[in-house]
Design a protein that fits this description.
Layout: H1 2-9, E1 19-28, H2 32-39, E2 52-59, E3 67-72, E4 80-89, E5 94-102, E6 110-120, E7 123-135, H3 142-171
Antiparallel strand pairs: 1-7, 2-3, 3-4, 4-5, 5-6, 6-7
Helix pairs in contact: 2-3
Amino acid sequence: MAEQYTCRHHRHHRPSENQCSSSVIKHIKAPLNIVWSLVRRFDKPQEYKPFVSRCTVLEGDLEIGSVREVNVKSGLPATTSTERLELLDDQEHILGVKFVGGDHRLKNYSSIITVHPEMIDGRLGTLVIESFVVDVPHGNTGDETCYFVNALINCNLKSLADVSERMAVRTKPIEQ
């Protein structure tokens, strides 16, 4: 199923010679509605992204075209990122973001994250797929750039799983 979802929803323009592209898949033991409630919050990425300390919406009402400034925690080679909401589909559970500024090296970064229902160990779970395309910074290789971005996404998705699964436990009805 992940391959079908990727082909259907994760269509970035064909990467040029100086770009790299990849995708990351995460299975989360929490229902889709909980996971999507976190992912879709363009104004609150810090609720699950561990490297984000603060987010301020600069333009828009959390609709396509809205722009946010994200403050990055120390330890990463950046302090801010300015990002535009490119796609938000609450029916298909798709969020697309493009970096439009900031003091980072991820130029022309564009990502798509999709959230899909699945069964995990006989319970409602969620399949999350995040894909990206980005310019390869001068002095780096495509492999190095993809490795770095994949590591960030894996960290974000692990945190998304942790937060979602804790929320699922708290909202689980008491069985008698």
